[in-house]
């Protein structure tokens, strides 16, 4: 009897063992055998490596792709896969010539036909198809040259072609439904996918047929590890289990700098954080209120106390790295909106918010100035939101912070159900003012209506002359500064911590790792 | 919560608690006093309840006032439990946070208790409803409470109120089960049968005979669930689904402190300790109540 | 027995069916149309309509439910709109980790719990008993996420004994299993103590004692064996709590299991994944409880089901 019970109990344990099917243990440290493995620590896993599908582009999926054009270190557009192009007539037609030695990871050539197929898939099924403009037709002229015809001139195309969104992907690996790329991807970028460990890591190797600029790759494999928890991520780096730590949490930078083996790389990010609001809400209709809010914000205090000083204050609508930025606008905005509590209070009073209740909140017609501020779940943003809350309280504006998932914010804000939000945008071209921030029916987050601005932005989008284009944007920005439909705050420094590299560069404009420069110390 | 809260096993089996009618209060108190665990539990709870209730008078600093120059200070005479990343006093924030945590527990237990008692009495008393209600409860019980709460928060949206509702709903099944069990054992007793025979209305029987007799298991369960609700709410806040900054709910304090763990352990240690002590207090008290209210225990 | 089995299976199926309805309802109440999420900010009316049609979201909800269930019965839980993976693939990818985590924490919890429970029962009403029971209660009361943080800080960071995070074989699951198993240990300790005390009171133990059986032999041959029955049931019941606990534990330790999958799926509004996972977890819990019920009869021949 005893034995019988024991047997049954062991059966129970066996059942669990079978369920657990310990098949993972074999692959433990399979890559440790190679001496030059680079481990990169990242916050989150991209939902897909398919650039036409993913809503999360980042270091872990963009090295799969080589872009059509690229930005040099000064932000000029220079040839890459596309060697040269010719704008025909009024600018609706452009002929592109491709470099002839580029090869996809599958071994197929990156020729005009392949690029055409890739564009067609982008246009028909990607949420990011607008980046290519309103394309009428794509015509293959020869093996390595093709012509794109747009319905309207589309000036931002060239800068957009420097982003991975328009990079060619190898359509030949897709299945019958045009899917399956996420498991068997093939691009023409520096890294070739080796293994996907869902939820844990992506493993790449350097692609031998990539143009390594006459050198050999300085590493044998790259593993992107996804570690959602901030503290755990930093501990893994400190222990040496991670060689490259992207987006170092600000509170740890000082600590890491003390370690002589660690190098900290700082690159000005192209992402502008801003405090925005739904301009359709009655409370934000008065320009005096909007200006008062802008005057109440002390950017330096937020930067010093939540970002460890690792950011640059921005007053104008566009940060420095973006085409369309103007020194004149920035100076003008800085002069206008440097923190001035008294001026802010005065403006609020003029707008009718002239009483104060016992909690110190300003009132108008018996209603207090109290709004909800949406912020995503990034810890640094949540800290910034609290400092903003305190700063606005000083002029009697009460903020209630509501943390939302980014997915919710992206989805709910176009419906206009929000009041305020702490959000950001990152795009290399001023057209972002049009297609995301203030364009007609495109003001998804800010719901700002201004016919004058619409017409300027529309004109700028089709202006093929870069100088005239930038004048138009200056004009639009001047109005935006005066109208204050949102408060630009800062661009964060992109802080990367590395150890054991002979060389390791991060692109100064688009902030991505330059894999051709990466060389592991031996 | 977090898998480490199989409270259903801490609960008395409903049938084990035989109804104990109107035994003297003095006897009960005497029994409770003899139970060291219950006394310790009650003392812990009393400490937290009093400090939370009088937080505005006890707290040495304003709860949300930022003093950047004092940020991340370790425990000292000026700041007993240290300061956080904005120089806010942890002890002050814990006092205010205790109000939120305790009120969340109270709300969750009251709401789930009310729903649970209604459903439990209906299921136990009206045998025709029993099978439907219990099948529904079985389905609800399939989901571990945290998972259930996460799913509910996904529907309702992130936030303190929604987290409270989610926790409350996830606790309902245990109340229904316990109440139904007790009602079943009482409705067969002679005096209920007799009352029915002489035509006393159902609601009168329920109010006069049934409810007073299921009071003990409900009180015991409520005490135990109070603790586990606080734990559930804290776990939700820890996942970022519950209390929002700058709300000093204890779980949220641990969540924030986590980002500073190796620099400022006090930000995480003390709020976590408070959660543990309060939950421990409720469990000790609940155990004591069960021993005192269960006539079989010596 | 067989009629009991039949009845039990019948209610099991009803419950799984009910769970599926509940899950489907919850999922469709979640605000946010997945189509908006897939197509992003610049979608046109037509492209939204077209995708809705392709995903079958334009059909009446009942039709959607039944076609979903029809496929689910055939082992197809749908495909994630976002990642392109089938839900079954995702589950199979990740279940080894969660299952191992559950298994190890049950083993840790049972062994620790039984030892503590036995000590408490044997030394009843002494300081050891009280200490053991306070320890058990602390295990139940302590927030696991909080314990996890300090375990990492001490054992992984300061002492470098264990990896900090991620999955790299058995070693990397030790701390997560301890975190997750603490509560189980606490409950099992309490259960072991009380069921052993019940058994010790019974006649056959007294008889064995009278016959002069040595006290250790006595404890293990008689009382523990009989006391283990409720403990096994408890282990079955723990399964659900472990599944839920895995959500937090896997997040803190960056383990690619089912728990972290559900958290990320909720935050990206990956409806098919959330739905499939909830259904799968619920079905697992129901089945494990069923198996444990059956084992129960095998373990204790005195129990007979009609």
From TrEMBL, chain A:
Solute-binding protein family domain sequence ranges: 76-437
Coiled coil stretches, renumbered: none
GO terms for cellular component: ATP-binding cassette (ABC) transporter complex; periplasmic space
A single BP term in Gene Ontology: peptide transport
Molecular function, one GO term: peptide transmembrane transporter activity
Protein name as it appears in the record: ABC transporter substrate-binding protein
Organism lineage string: Bacteria, Bacillati, Bacillota, Bacilli, Bacillales
TrEMBL record, chain B:
InterPro entries per UniProt: BP-dependent_transpt_permease, MetI-like, MetI-like_sf, OppC_N
Annotated transmembrane regions: 38-59, 102-125, 137-157, 163-179, 218-243, 263-286
GO biological process, one term: transmembrane transport
Membrane-protein topology: Multi-pass membrane protein
Domain ABC transmembrane type-1 span(s) in chain numbering: 98-286
Keyword terms of this UniProt record: Cell membrane, Membrane, Transmembrane, Transmembrane helix, Transport
Localization of this protein: Cell membrane
Keyword Transport found: yes
Alphabetized PROSITE patterns for the sequence: ABC_TM1
CC terms in the record's Gene Ontology section: plasma membrane
Keyword Repeat attached: no
Family of the protein in this entry: Belongs to the binding-protein-dependent transport system permease family.
Protein name (Swiss-Prot/TrEMBL): ABC transporter permease
Source organism of this protein record: Psychrobacillus lasiicapitis
From TrEMBL, chain C:
Protein name: ABC transporter permease
A Pfam family of this chain: BPD_transp_1_N
Cellular localisation: Cell membrane
UniProt keyword annotations, A-Z: Cell membrane, Membrane, Transmembrane, Transmembrane helix, Transport
Protein's membrane topology: Multi-pass membrane protein
Family recorded in the similarity comment: Belongs to the binding-protein-dependent transport system permease family.
Residues that span the membrane, as ranges: 12-30, 101-122, 134-157, 169-189, 227-248, 277-296
GO biological process: transmembrane transport
ABC transmembrane type-1 domain: residues covered: 95-296
PROSITE patterns linked to this entry: ABC_TM1
CDD domains: TM_PBP2 (cd06261)
Gene Ontology CC annotations of this record: plasma membrane
């Amino acid at each position: 009897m005893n034995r019988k019970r024991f047997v049954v109990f062991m059966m129970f344990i066996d059942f669990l063992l079978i369920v657990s099917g310990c098949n993972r243990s074999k692959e433990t440290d399979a890559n440790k055998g190679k001496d030059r493995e680079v481990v990169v620590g990242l916050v989150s896993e991209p939902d897909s490596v398919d650039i036409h599908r993913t809503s999360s582009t980042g270091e872990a999926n963009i090295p799969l792709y080589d872009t059509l054009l690229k930005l040099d270190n000064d932000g000029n557009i220079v040839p890459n896969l596309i060697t040269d192009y010719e704008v025909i007539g009024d600018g609706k037609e452009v002929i592109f010539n491709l470099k002839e030695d580029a090869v996809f990871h599958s071994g197929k050539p990156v020729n005009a036909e392949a690029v055409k197929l890739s564009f067609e898939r982008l246009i028909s099924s990607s949420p990011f198809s607008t980046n290519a403009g309103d394309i009428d037709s794509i015509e293959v002229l020869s093996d390595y040259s093709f012509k794109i015809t747009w319905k309207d001139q589309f000036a931002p195309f060239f800068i957009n072609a420097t982003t991975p969104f328009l990079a060619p992907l190898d359509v030949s690996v897709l299945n019958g439904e045009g899917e399956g790329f996420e498991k068997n991807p093939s691009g023409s970028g520096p890294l070739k996918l080796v293994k996907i460990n869902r939820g844990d890591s992506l493993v790449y190797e350097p692609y031998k047929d990539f143009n390594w600029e006459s050198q050999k790759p300085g590493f044998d494999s790259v593993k992107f590890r996804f570690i959602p928890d901030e503290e755990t991520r930093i501990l893994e780096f400190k222990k040496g289990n991670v060689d490259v730590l992207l987006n170092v949490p600000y509170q740890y930078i000082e600590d890491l700098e003390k370690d002589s083996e660690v190098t900290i790389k700082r690159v000005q990010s192209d992402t502008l954080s801003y405090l925005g609001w739904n301009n359709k809400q009655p409370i934000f209709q008065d320009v005096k209120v909007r200006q008062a809010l802008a005057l109440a914000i002390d950017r330096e205090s937020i930067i010093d106390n939540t970002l460890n000083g690792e950011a640059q204050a921005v007053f104008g609508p566009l940060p420095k790295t973006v085409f369309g930025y103007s020194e004149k606008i920035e100076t003008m905005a800085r002069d206008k909106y440097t923190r001035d509590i008294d001026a802010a209070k005065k403006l609020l009073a003029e707008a009718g918010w002239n009483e104060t209740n016992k909690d110190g909140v300003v009132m108008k017609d018996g209603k207090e100035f109290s709004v909800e501020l949406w912020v995503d779940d990034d810890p640094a943003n949540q800290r910034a939101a609290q400092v903003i809350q305190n700063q606005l309280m000083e002029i009697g504006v009460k903020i209630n912070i509501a943390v939302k998932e980014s997915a919710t914010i992206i989805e709910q804000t176009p419906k206009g159900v929000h009041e305020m939000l702490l959000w950001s945008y990152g795009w290399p071209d001023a057209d972002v003012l049009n297609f995301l921030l203030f364009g007609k029916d495109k003001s998804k987050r800010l719901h700002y209506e201004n016919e004058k601005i619409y017409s300027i932005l529309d004109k700028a989008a089709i202006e093929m002359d870069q100088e005239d284009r930038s004048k138009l944007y200056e004009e639009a920005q001047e109005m935006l500064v005066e109208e204050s439909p949102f408060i630009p705050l800062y661009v964060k420094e992109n802080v990367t911590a590395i150890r054991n590299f002979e060389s390791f560069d991060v692109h100064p404009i688009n902030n991505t790792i330059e894999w051709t420069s990466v060389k592991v110390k031996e | 919560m977090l898998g480490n809260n199989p409270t259903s096993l801490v609960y008395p089996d409903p049938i084990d608690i035989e109804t104990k009618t109107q035994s003297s209060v003095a006897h009960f108190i005497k029994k409770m006093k003899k139970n060291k665990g219950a006394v310790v539990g009650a003392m812990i709870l009393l400490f937290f309840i009093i400090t939370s209730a009088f937080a505005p008078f006890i707290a040495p600093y304003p709860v949300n006032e930022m003093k950047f120059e004092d940020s991340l200070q370790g425990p000292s005479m000026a700041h007993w439990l240290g300061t956080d990343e904005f120089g806010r006093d942890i002890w002050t924030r814990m006092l205010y946070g205790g109000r939120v945590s305790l009120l969340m527990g109270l709300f969750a237990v009251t709401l789930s208790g009310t729903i649970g008692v209604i459903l439990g009495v209906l299921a136990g008393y009206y045998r025709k409803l029993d099978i439907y209600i219990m099948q529904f409860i079985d389905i609800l019980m399939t989901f571990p409470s945290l998972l259930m709460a996460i799913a509910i928060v996904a529907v309702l949206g992130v936030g303190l109120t929604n987290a409270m509702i989610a926790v409350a709903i996830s606790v309902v099944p245990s109340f229904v089960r316990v109440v139904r069990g007790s009602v079943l054992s009482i409705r067969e007793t002679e005096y209920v049968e007799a009352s029915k025979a002489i035509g006393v209305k159902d609601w009168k029987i329920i109010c006069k005979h049934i409810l007073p007799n299921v009071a003990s298991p409900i009180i015991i369960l409520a005490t135990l669930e109070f603790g586990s609700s606080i734990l559930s709410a804290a776990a939700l806040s820890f996942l970022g689904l519950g209390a929002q900054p700058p709300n000093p709910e204890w779980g949220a304090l641990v969540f924030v402190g986590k980002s500073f763990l190796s620099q400022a352990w006090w930000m995480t240690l003390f709020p976590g300790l408070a959660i543990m002590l309060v939950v421990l207090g409720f469990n000790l008290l609940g155990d004591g109540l069960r021993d005192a209210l269960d006539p079989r225990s010596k | 027995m067989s009629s009991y089995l039949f009845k039990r299976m019948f209610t099991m199926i009803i419950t799984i069916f009910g769970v599926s309805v509940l899950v489907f309802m919850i999922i469709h109440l979640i605000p946010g149309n997945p189509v908006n999420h897939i197509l992003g900010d610049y979608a046109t009316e037509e492209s939204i309509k077209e995708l809705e049609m392709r995903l079958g979201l334009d059909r009446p909800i009942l039709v959607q439910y039944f076609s979903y269930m029809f496929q689910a019965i055939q082992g197809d839980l749908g495909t994630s709109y976002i990642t392109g993976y089938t839900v079954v693939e995702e589950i199979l990818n990740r279940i080894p980790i969660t299952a191992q985590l559950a298994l190890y924490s049950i083993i840790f919890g049972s062994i620790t719990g039984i030892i503590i429970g036995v000590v408490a029962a044997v030394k009843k009403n002494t300081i050891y008993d009280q200490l053991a029971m306070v320890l058990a209660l602390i295990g139940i009361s302590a927030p696991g996420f909080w314990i996890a943080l300090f375990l990492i800080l001490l054992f992984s960071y300061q002492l470098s004994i264990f990896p900090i995070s991620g999955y790299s074989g058995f070693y990397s699951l030790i701390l997560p299993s301890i975190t997750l198993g603490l509560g189980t240990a606490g409950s099992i300790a309490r259960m072991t103590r009380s069921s052993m005390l019940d058994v010790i009171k019974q006649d056959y133990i007294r008889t064995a004692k009278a016959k002069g059986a040595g006290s250790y032999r006595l404890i293990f041959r008689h009382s523990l064996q009989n006391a283990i029955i409720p403990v096994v049931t408890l282990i079955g019941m723990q399964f659900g709590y472990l599944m839920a606990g895995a959500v937090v534990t896997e997040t803190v330790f960056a383990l690619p299991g089912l728990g972290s999958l559900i958290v990320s799926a909720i935050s990206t509004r990956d409806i098919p994944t959330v739905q499939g996972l909830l259904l799968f977890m619920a079905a697992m819990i129901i089945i494990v409880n069923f198996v444990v019920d059956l084992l129960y009869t095998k373990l204790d021949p005195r129990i007979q089901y009609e």
